[in-house]
Design goal:
This protein is of the alpha/beta class. About 40% of the residues lie in helices and about 20% in strands.
Length: about 500
């Protein structure tokens, strides 16, 4: 038996264990081939990647060190006694190897893969192999099986209500933080909307990242349920509530690889919604020349895939295609986007008009799920709830119920303004590049990093007038972002503006 010791290292998403090379209970050499071990306590067994340690100040010969995620998941106190054993490679890896060679996976194989990923049996390299092999080709049947397997892998919520509303944006448009406005509007009306969100994958902020600038988002299932029962809604990170847990593990590998495959994206979205208990779901697909979805044809194909899987899973869907030609609002990055959201909810005169208009349109579509509203009345009801301050009051109650954020988020103090190279009109904005600049500045991990936009499409600018401001907290991030913006600012200006502006 070995004594458990917590090692203050964040090895997420992996479980990592540390064994002394001079271990008194086991020969370290026995475990150097497979690297994966089982850690067995009186009440629980977890799998972990093993690291052999030569520093007795870190791990003593009679100890087993566990990184922070593994220590939390094992749930045993420090100095508790544990055993270890070699963990054989997961059998489901054979299906991944066949997929790499072009085979189609069965539902049972996909379920086994997702079960093993959720149990941390796969290394990041093995997860990447699964993602990339699936990304090269995945049938609609495989996508449906993947969605079901991901939804079944963790907890499932049941609200015992005829309508549990939800809303999701496909993404690719910086600043498009409409969910944080739609949710309190819908809840103020009286519909239930337990909004869960993943962390950002390729964008500079997701809903959970931005909400975390205002409130705690890592709520447990029980805490989430309590907030929703009291306030009709929440805005939380789905990972802590154990909803589709494999999704967050997959995202942790997708993020550094910057991959976002259509079938996996749909499985990620719908599995989270099914697990969160949604019955009625609005999907927003922004389309633009530099958005994630870049053509109407691509949007139609995506819509049909969502409809196919949603119908099989019993979801009531409303799918809308919106303009994705430019960022929404003024801020790109968690703190800046939270500023814009609260300005809209507070009805401030300087609140971004495009963010307000888009949020009202989408909130109206969600409210139209309510059978007690006359057809098409949702938009007017949404505006009434926003203008009256009812939505703001509801948002403040949701923030209070979820609790304060883990730390105060402040805007990055390192700044640089990027001037217009010539006078004219803004005729195009590169959503992808502006998002990349904000990510290089540190967003979303640094909540105060990002890009503050001063101009949008159709705006008149004078030579030397600032187009936007970069915010960063760390010099290295600031230099990376500034260099990328200097190479190409992502904003196109035309002296006349007419033809290019009309083409948007």
């Amino acid at each position: 038996m070995l004594k458990v010791k917590k090692v203050a290292l964040d090895t997420a998403p992996e479980n990592t264990a540390f064994l002394s090379r001079c271990c008194t209970a086991y020969r370290a050499e026995e475990f150097t081939t497979l690297k994966k071990i089982e850690v067995i306590s009186d009440s629980k067994t977890i799998l972990a990647t093993l690291v052999i340690c030569d520093d007795a100040d870190i791990i003593a010969p009679e100890e087993l060190g566990l990184g922070a995620p593994a220590f939390r998941r094992l749930g045993a106190p420090e100095n508790a006694r544990v055993r270890i054993a070699q963990a054989p490679p997961p059998a489901s890896l054979e299906a991944v190897r066949r997929k790499i060679n072009g085979s189609e996976m069965t539902s049972a194989e996909i379920k086994a893969i997702i079960s093993d990923i959720a149990a941390f049996r796969y290394s990041p390299m093995e997860i990447a192999a699964f993602l990339i092999s699936s990304g090269s080709f995945m049938s609609t049947g495989e996508a449906l099986a993947l969605t079901r397997a991901m939804a079944d892998a963790g907890s499932k919520l049941d609200w015992d209500l005829p309508i549990v509303a939800d809303k999701h944006c496909i993404g690719g448009i910086p600043g498009n933080r409409t969910s944080m406005i739609v949710t309190p509007i819908v809840a103020a009306h009286g519909l239930c909307m337990p909004k869960t969100s993943s962390r950002a994958i390729t964008s500079p902020a997701g809903t959970a990242d931005t909400m975390e600038a205002l409130a705690r988002v890592d709520l447990t299932t029980e805490e989430m349920r309590a907030v929703v029962e009291n306030e009709k809604a929440c805005l939380v990170w789905g990972g802590r509530a154990n909803l589709s847990p494999a999704d967050d593990i997959l995202i942790s590998v997708e993020r550094p690889l910057r991959i976002d495959i259509r079938e996996q994206m749909v499985a990620s979205i719908l599995s989270k919604k099914i697990a969160a208990g949604a019955t009625h779901l609005l999907i927003d697909i922004p389309v633009g020349p530099t958005a994630k979805v870049r053509s109407r044809g691509e949007a139609v194909r995506l819509r049909k895939l969502i409809e196919f899987i949603g119908d099989q899973l019993g979801l009531h869907l409303d799918i809308v295609v919106t303009d994705g030609a430019q960022p929404v609002g003024r801020g790109i990055g968690p703190v800046l986007e939270a500023r814009d959201v609260m300005a809209v909810l507070r009805n401030q005169p300087d609140a971004p008009g495009d963010l307000r208009a888009r949020a009202l349109f989408l909130a109206g579509r969600v409210l139209d799920f309510d059978p007690d509203l006359r057809g098409g009345a949702g938009r007017a009801r949404a505006e009434e709830l926003l203008d009256s301050g009812a939505a703001l009051t509801k948002m403040e109650k949701i923030i209070d119920a979820q609790g304060p954020p883990p730390s105060e988020s402040v805007l990055g103090a390192l700044t640089m303004d990027f001037p217009a190279p010539r006078s004219g009109f803004v005729v195009a904005m590169d959503c992808y590049r502006l998002g990349r600049i904000a990510r290089l500045a540190g967003a979303p991990l640094d909540k105060g990093a990002g890009v503050d936009l001063f101009k949008k499409i159709s705006d008149r600018v004078e030579a030397g007038e600032p187009l936007y401001r970069i915010h960063a907290s760390f010099k290295s991030d600031f230099d990376f972002a500034a260099a990328m913006a200097a190479e190409d600012a992502g904003v196109r200006i035309d002296a006349q503006g007419g033809s290019a502006r009309g083409a948007q």
